Amino acid sequence: MFSSVDGASPGTKPATQRRSRETRDKLITALDELLHEKNFDAISVAEIANRAGVSVASVYQRFDNHNAAVAILVALYLRRVTQWWNDFSRDSPEPIGRTSLREALVQVGRAAWRQSDDLRYVMQPAYLQSRLHPDLLDEHWRRQEEVAVSGFRSLLQNHADEIRHSDVTRAASMSAYFFNLMLLGRLLHPEGMSGWNLPTDVDEFAEELADFVCGYLGVARATDSQGRLDR
After folding, report:
1. What is the pTM of this model?
2. How many CB atoms are closer than 10 A to CB 193?
């Protein structure tokens, strides 16, 4: 899922003192390191505290007692996704949308693919844990759904002359849903992609996503001088 985030981390107590903030940062960094070594389910609160160099009691002073490890995971997820989005926005050579609709969709697909590659280690467990603990991330997912639909709506409105779909609001919702569903499948089951005979290259995958959505929207395909379809 292609995500940007904002707001405070659910399950996190307010950090009013510098020492408290430093402890929180140490715990988040410790979990980040551990997730590069093992699955989240194999990591305990005590292990996070030990890696951070703080006491277990410090964990519960900074995070809610119930599911403290999950609360730290959520804080890490929100931090990493926000950082990724900021870096992407800064380094992107061309703003999405200043081109044909199809190419804009290809750009979205490429970005989502790369985000899932870069952040799978934290996005995957965060999503799975959110299904088990909906109170921690449901509000975030709902906000992200709204952002995604709004983004697609703006994109389609900016390219209204290219599409034949009469209901832009419905088209934006369906397009956002399709993109998120396709990328969520890849995020959760990267090893299963070959069994579906799906593209394993970022550019090819993004092209296929764009073709599907353009077909749904009724976007006319461009052709070259010999009448062949031009990707």
Report:
1. 0.78
2. 14
